[in-house]
Amino acid sequence: MERSEITGLVNKFIQEYYESGSTTGIHDLLAEDVIAFGVGSLSYVQGREKVMEFLAANRNKLSLVKVRKIVCGEVRTAQGFTIRATVEFSTYNRKHIIHRLLMMFREEDGGCLLCGINVQRGFASFLYNLHYDRLTNLYNKKAFCRNAAEILEKYPDLEFEIMRFNIARFKVINDLFGEETGDKLLRYVAQFMSSIQLTPCVYGRLYADNFLLCYPTRGNMRDHLIHSLQMLAASFALDYRIEFYFGVYTVKERNLSVNSMLDRAAMALFKASRNGLSVCGVYEEDMRANIVNEQVIVNNMNGSLERDEFIVYYQPKYDLLTETIVGAEALVRWAHPKLGFISPAKFVPIFEQNGFIYQLDKYVWEKVCQQLRADIDEGRTVLPVSINVSRVDFYSPNLVQVFEDLVKKYNLDPRLLELELTESAYVENPQQIIEIIAELQSKGFIILMDDFGSGYSSLNMLKDLPVNVLKIDLRFLADSQGVENGRADNILDSIVRMAKRLDLLVIAEGVETQKQVDFLRLIGCEYVQGYFFSEPVPGEHYQELIKNDYVVEHKEPLYSEHGGGTVLTLSSQLSMLMEELREIAPDKIAAIEEKMKEEAAALW
Questions:
Q1: Cβ distance 395 to 169 under 8 Å?
Q2: Helix intervals (H) in 502-537
Q3: DSSP 8-state code for residue 145
Q4: How far is CA 366 from the centre of its chain?
Q5: Which among 64, 335, 362, 575 could disulfide-bond with 524, CB atoms 3.0 to 4.6 Å apart, if both were Cys?
Q6: Among 415, 278, 297, 380, which Cα is nearest to 345's?
Q7: Residue closest to 163 by CA, chosen among 63, 229, 30, 261
Q8: Could you give the strand order of the β-sheet that contains 65-76, starting from the edge strand earlier in sequence?
Q9: Residue 597 in 3-state DSSP?
């Protein structure tokens, strides 16, 4: 065959070969000594029949194929010429692949014969990287934006949504199980997205664990996609709870760039992942101002930490009988030189979302230990201080070691550094939390469960989790409708009784009125914390409060030196006496208590 006919034949051959597996017309072009090697080959094959077998086997490795583009170029060689072909094609599941073929021809008297075939993967090619993400084979951001813009223009009468979603705490998955597992999860998600049988639809990967979708809103498609992805997360073989967060922008302004639409979907995603109340956030116009304010916080967080602009405040805990301080909770305040005091309600949720909360928590823990050590060295009265351990902190693989190192560094009794965790931390990963808490207790640390009763699994948690102290926030009860019909006081009374039977201490926090104090005394709650006694104060002020309480005589701290038992104050002894009398004369004690409750009915 003449050289002028070869290029056209090669184009036709490649098209038919990839789409149907046909090798018609190529056999007669093969030289007797032709060789071939290709994708994954460890050695080459030689001879016409062997090469034909090679071509058939190589094609059988591919599923149904649609050729999207063929680009051929010719290069002169010493013996003849070589045709270099780039083949872009997609499989039935929309996986995009690029192959590069080298077809080497030798010129002889009788014409041109094909003497060599080399099939190469083109994943690393410049052309592929312009359009596709190498790990998942999904569109990259640039290609997604271009294709989304095309379908928005092509279907002007259809309403579309832009969805952006990510994997909650993906960095934790990488840290705990390795990046190989993380990559496997990303490919697992991408495979599902590639299998979506929806037209028109565009999907892609933005970066890391962030994925993109553009789809028509018909048929409640958003809920269907979210439900399907949640089922996908549950099916992934990993001993860890995988969750997705979603952000959606419904396309109302077609004149916006797709890039701007992605920004709006990102704002909705941020809202969902920050508050945790819903897995899906929907863009609203007022989000932009909130995002700007939150970005200001993020921009300043590292510098403020380096400059010690985060300050530890202490809110005292009191014995209700003696109304003297028995310890404190360490709370963080942000005093920015230009922005002023920034409320924890504004910055803590943001830090929990971006992971900075762990650095801030470690900073607070260190400051508290420094203060305790200074109090000991200067001969001041030393009382336990509880520090907050956020749910994010529990994902640190060396959390127990961090606390061990702290008490060792400052030569502290572990019982002076109490650890408060929230119920939400337990709910997210119960088995891991139980193991960490048990190990911390074995090292001598006291564990407090904060906001007990505010979640849906409190009793189940109490059955499994070995805590020492329950903290009940009275604001939780005050916000409930049960206050009006007496349910709130009955709930609180029941929790206190239950805790006593389990040999647990109870601290009521959020105490703000004398009526609340009286009611807590009535039901036998021994320890309180709240603005009625003291607001959170700086360390120097806290030391003055302790000094005033302990100037006459030494009072025992909240915990005794032995085991996990409590100090038997008069209040606790009276409570124990009431329990004993209840066993002897339950009817009379019940009548007395009912009368006392009637008298206290107006306290709430």
A1: yes
A2: 514-522
A3: H
A4: 25
A5: 575
A6: 297
A7: 261
A8: 45-46, 30-37, 111-121, 96-108, 80-91, 65-76
A9: helix
| Amino acid occupying residue 338 | K
Nearest to 420, CA basis, from 384, 460, 395: 384
Higher pLDDT pick, 426 / 568 = 426
φ/ψ of 237, rounded to 5, equals: -75, 90
Rounded to 5°, the CA angle 270-273-277 comes to 120
Residues 6+ apart with CB under 8 A from 210: 164, 165, 166
- How many whole angstroms separate alpha carbon 70 and alpha carbon 85? 7
Provide the residue type at 3 as one letter: R
Partner residues linked to 527 by β-bridges = 319, 507
- State the Cα–Cα distance between residues 433 and 431, nearest whole angstrom: 5
**Taking the model in full, what pTM does it have?**
0.57
How far is Cα 440 from Cα 449, in angstroms, rounded to an integer?
A: 14
Q: Which two tokens stand for residue 366?
A: 């260190």
Q: Are 590 and 475 in contact (CB under 8 A)?
A: no
Average pLDDT, rounded, for the chain: 83
3-state secondary structure of 533: coil
Lookup: tokens for 106: 């030798």
Q: Which two tokens stand for residue 413?
A: 């009794």
Q: What is the rounded CA–CA span in Å between residue 80 and residue 61?
A: 31
Q: Name the nearest CA neighbour of 362 among 413, 401, 314, 335.
A: 401
Please report how the helices 179-194 and 170-177 are oriented relative to each other, as an axis angle in degrees rounded to 10. 130
C-alpha dihedral sign at 506, 324, 321, 597: negative
**CB 52: neighbour CB atoms within 10 A?**
17
pLDDT at 422 over 60: yes
Position 599: which residue type?
A: E
pLDDT confidence tier of residue 150, bands split at 50, 70 and 90: very high
Contact by Cβ (8 Å): 322, 553: no
* DSSP β-ladder status, 310-319 and 244-250: unpaired
pLDDT digit string, tens, across residues 430-447: 778 888 999 999 999 999
DSSP strand E in 390-524: where? 417-422, 447-450, 469-473, 505-509
Is the Cα dihedral 581, 584, 590, 595 positive or negative? negative
How far apart CA 575 and CA 588 sit, in angstroms, is: 16
